[in-house]
Design a protein that fits this description.
The protein is of the alpha/beta class and about 210 residues long. The chain has one domain: Spore Coat Polysaccharide Biosynthesis Protein SpsA, Chain A, CATH 3.90.550.10. The protein contains 7 helices and 11 strands. The strands form 2 sheets. The protein has a 7-stranded mixed sheet with strand order 3-2-1-4-9-6-10, with helices on both faces. The protein has a 4-stranded mixed sheet with strand order 5-11-7-8. A hairpin with a 4-residue loop joins β7 and β8.
């Protein structure tokens, strides 16, 4: 596998459906997506009803591995335990993150891979789009200016980092840990913004669960 996507889920069924459809509609194949409910009753119901059976079958028939599961216990903390779990389980050479209330464009995987494949970089960071403000986020290596959504990381390198923890800001701590470890990195600021943040603190997306 070239790429692993990690997406913790809790509640928000309509957004989760939308996010999984975004994943399934990528323009390239040969990836895996680990979609895991955080002790989530919504995900439990999805799995029990085989709601995603067709999309999983069709996606995996193209040479991908879309896996949808639900952990028995809720850990909270922005899905930190699932993130740690997925980092260890990943089969992809590179690793990206997604929140189940966000959206990625169909060429997102292709875009992020283009910034790191055939380089010796440990991670690459990109710009994103913050839809509640109808404004770009120009990523920078400082707190509040970069997070999971802007990153692609070499999986082997990512596994050497301290695990995520259950407090807000653990994505910035990951970046800080990578920088402190002497990581090789690159800013792909010229690339298309293919990750769209749909909600931010105190400004939730409207008209959807």
């Amino acid at each position: 596998m070239k790429l692993t996507l990690s997406m913790p889920c809790y509640g928000r069924p309509q957004r989760t459906i939308r996010a999984i459809e975004c994943i399934a509609n990528q323009t390239i194949n040969g990836w895996e997506a680990l979609v895991v409910g955080d002790g989530c009753e919504v995900m439990k119901d999805f799995i029990f009803s085989n709601y995603f059976a067709d999309i999983v079958r069709d996606t995996n028939a193209r040479g991908n591995d879309l896996r949808i599961s639900n952990n028995s216990e809720n850990k909270g903390g922005c899905g930190y335990a699932i993130t740690n779990q997925n980092i260890q389980r990943a089969k992809g050479e590179y690793f990206i993150f997604m929140s189940n209330d966000d959206v990625i464009k169909p060429n997102h995987f292709e875009n992020y891979l283009s910034g790191i494949v055939n380089t010796d970089n440990d991670f690459v960071y990109f710009n994103s789009w913050i839809e509640p403000y109808n404004a770009p986020r120009t990523a920078a290596l400082s707190f509040g200016n970069i997070g999971h959504s802007e990153l692609i990381v070499r999986t082997e390198f990512l596994r050497k980092m301290p695990p995520h923890y259950d407090e807000y800001g653990h994505d910035w701590q990951l970046v800080l840990n990578m920088l402190n470890s002497g990581a090789k990195y690159h800013y792909a600021g010229y690339n298309e913004r293919t990750y769209i943040v749909k909600s931010v603190p105190n400004k939730e997306e409207l008209n959807i669960d």
